[in-house]
Amino acid sequence: MNHLVSEQNMTHVLEVGLEELENDNPNGLPKVKGYNIINGKLALASDNSTFESRNPALLSDCLGEFPLSTKEDVDDALAAARAAFPSWSATPAPTRGQIIGNMGRLLMKYKDDVVRLETREIGKTLKESAGSVQEAIDTCLFFQSEGRRLYGQTVNSELPDKELFTYRRPLGVCGIINACNFPAAVPFWKMIPAIMCGNTCVWKSPQDAPLLSFALARIMHEAGLPDGVINLVHGKGSGAGQYLVDAVDEGKVDKISFTGSTAVGKMIGEVCGRNLVSASLELGGKNPLVVMPSANLENAIEGAYWAAFGTAGQRCTSLGNLIVHKDVYDEFLEKFMVKVENTSIGDSLHNEGVLYGPMLSEKYAVDFLTGIQMCEDSGATKIYGRGRISNDNKPDGFHGDASEGVYMWPHVYVDVTEEMECFQEEIFGPVVTIVKANDFDHALHLANASPYGLSSAIYTNERLEAYRFKTGIKAGMTGINNSTTGAEAHLPFGGVKGSGNGTRESGIWVIEAYSYWHAVNDELSGKLQLAQMDVDEIEIEEAEVDYSSLA
Ligand code: UN1
Question: Domains of the chain by range and CATH?
Answer without folding.
Answer: 32-282 (3.40.605.10), 287-489 (3.40.309.10)
